Amino acid sequence: MADEPLIDKIHDLSDLELATLICLVAQEHCIIDTEPDSIDDLVLELELVAAKVFGLSHAVIDCSEHTSLDDFAYSILSAEGSPARSTSPVRTRADSYFLNAPTFQSIAARSPVSENFADNKSIANVIIAKNLDEAPKQVQIQALELMRTKRIYTRTSVQSAPKRFLFIALLAGGEGPRLTKHLNDQMFISHFHDPEDGFPNLEEKYDDGSSISSVVKKSPIVPEPYLLPRISAMDIEHLSQLSEYTTVTVELSEYQQDIIAFLRLHRAVAGGISATATRNFDKLSKCLAPLHDLSYATPSLVALAARKIYPHRIHIVQPEKERSMQWGSDVDAVAAELDGIGAEDVIEDVLGSAGAETPL
Questions:
Q1: 4-231 in CATH: which number?
Q2: Which of 138, 144, 172, 271 could in theory staple to 315 by disulfide, Cβ–Cβ 3.0 to 4.6 A?
Q3: What are the residue ranges spanned by the domains of the chain?
Q4: How far is 307 from 312, CA to CA, in rounded Å?
């Protein structure tokens, strides 16, 4: 189990800091959702979380329908690093990503960025992709490849992601899947941050009484070298090792499988309970145990894992495609039954008394 000082530090973390820690421990990526009016404050808060709490470099990508592959590639190369492998034999593959068409016009052609821009840069530890769901499909595919291979190809080089690497898709408003199918399924967890829960790091930084929303960020937020991060690389590695040895009993494994079966059979679910989600469900259940100073998973941790793994994956069925329509149900009655049901409602149904039986 983790030592007491580390557990105390974990208990003092905010919801955003804890979500970041879970992903770093699991070496996975996440979706963070909030209200549209608070997304800019949330970007600043996540920058401070990366810099102050974990001592990690970060990059922010402000996505829109006009974001190109070049915009994406150059935006994430924000941290100073060693020269890229510009002589790599796989360099020719980059040409297929950057077509000489107006749609993929490089930011280098529109700004004084040199062709050797990437040569003295490296991929940031934490990438915050604001409004990633608004980016074109080819940009989302590029993000997916970066997460899977931990590499990205620019015009002149191949860049590799650092060992501690986290990609955060920052979305605003909405429920259920909003990214492309495979990118959405690649996201480990999803978390909704209620603005009423505050932005503690941002409020601490600007505690002079000025409005947070009116703050103009004049320079990037960077880790201060004389301040040690609250959660160190050794802490994360230790928690990661502990999660690998978390005990999951046969009864608890059956409970996990029952939850998955009930989700797949729920009348409101059209899809989203994938094999990837199942693997992530098991992984998160194990990762949560050491954060609670346990060497074994419990039913409550499994339920918590389900609430984080599935909300962004579940597709709610259209009334005309609901399975009871095969036996003559009235479409208006089905529509009334499904009205207002979201992914979280489905999960609570399955975890409630009418769903999977909790092991004693």
A1: 3.40.50.300
A2: 271
A3: 4-231, 245-351
A4: 10
Q: What value does the CA radius of gyration of the chain take, rounded to a whole number of Å?
A: 22
pLDDT profile of the chain (360 residues), mean per 10? 86 96 97 95 96 94 93 77 38 35 37 48 92 96 95 82 95 87 96 94 73 49 68 95 96 96 95 95 97 95 97 95 91 93 95 86
Fold of 245-351: Helicase, Ruva Protein; domain 3 (1.10.8)
Tell me how far CA of residue 341 lies from CA of 202, 314, 337, 345, 349, in angstroms: 35, 11, 8, 6, 11
Predicted local distance difference test score (pLDDT) of residue 157: 78
Q: What is the 3-state secondary structure (H, E, C) of the chain?
A: CCCHHHHHHHHCCCHHHHHHHHHHHHCCCEEEEECHHHHHHHHHHHHHHHHHHCCCCEEEEECCCCCCHHHHHHHCCCEECCCCCCCCHHHHHHHHCCCCCHHHCCHHHCCCCCCCHHHHEECCCEEEEECHHHCCHHHHHHHHHHHHHCEEECCCCEEECCCCCEEEEEEECCCCCCCCHHHHHHCCEEEECCHHHCCHHHHHHCCCCCCHHHCCCCCCCCCCCCCCCCCCHHHHHHHHHHHHCCECCHHHHHHHHHHHHHHHHCCCEEECCCHHHHHHHHHHHHHHHHHCCCCECCHHHHHHHHHHHCCCCCEECCHHHCHHHHHCCCHHHHHHHHCCCCHHHHHHHHHCCCCCCCCC
Cβ atoms of residues 323 and 155 within 8 Å: no
pTM of the model: 0.84
- Say which residues have a Cβ less than 8 Å from residue 62's Cβ, sequence separation at least 6: 130, 131
